[in-house]
Amino acid sequence: MRPDARAIVFDLDDTLYPLQRFVRSGFAAVAGELEREYGIERKKALQVLTSAMRTSARGRELQVCADKFRLPEAVVGDLVNIIRLHQPSIRLPRVSIHAIERLRASWRVGVLTNGLPDLQARKVESLGLRFLVDAVVYANAVGDGRGKPAPEPFHEVSRQLGVPPSRTVFVGNDKRCDVFGAACAGMRTIHLAESRRSAVGREGGACFADAVAGSLADVPSLAEHLVTEDWSIDVA
What we know:
The protein has 236 residues and is of the alpha/beta class. It has two domains: 156 residues, HAD superfamily/HAD-like (Rossmann fold); 67 residues. It contains nine helices and seven strands; from the N terminus they run βαααααβαβαβαββαβ. It has a seven-stranded parallel β-sheet, sandwiched between helices. Helix 2 packs across helix 3. The protein starts with 6 loop residues before the first strand and ends with a strand.
């Protein structure tokens, strides 16, 4: 590894793009399958799925849809597989592209993501990230498969980027998997949050990110400070 190099690593879901866009893409694939197999109008099925997502039934949208159209309970498992196996129709937001492009001039750039590796790989392909970053690591394919916050995935992305953890900044939205995990692996951390709220994490734990960003647009300047100055700064 080059001790003088520097790297920045991004989480994927809800960091580089909104996960809800993938969910909606999956629902569109499900609606198409319901039309082909059961004659249910695609538009009506999609409306039921997206409406359920905005209610207390969030997370059970497929069950709600099956109940609505009186489908066998066993069909829910098939619909889950359609979401997992479909090629998602998602795009990288402009703010993400701009942030990565700004960083590429003087940083090694990577992505480290939890989730089923084959599913995450389809997301990476659809988002065009292979052409924008230097390394993509699927955390659940490393070590014992636990994924983040285990240290092995963070060490693997450092190895692939050729930059030591001490010269690496990790950017993510999850206080435990991203911030805590990266910090334990020896990286500096930026918590991507909608507001200035870094004191309390999951299950009442503390989130001690080196910096808090309200937008990916803030990340390049924050990262620059973190590798050149021994201080913490919040921008939100």
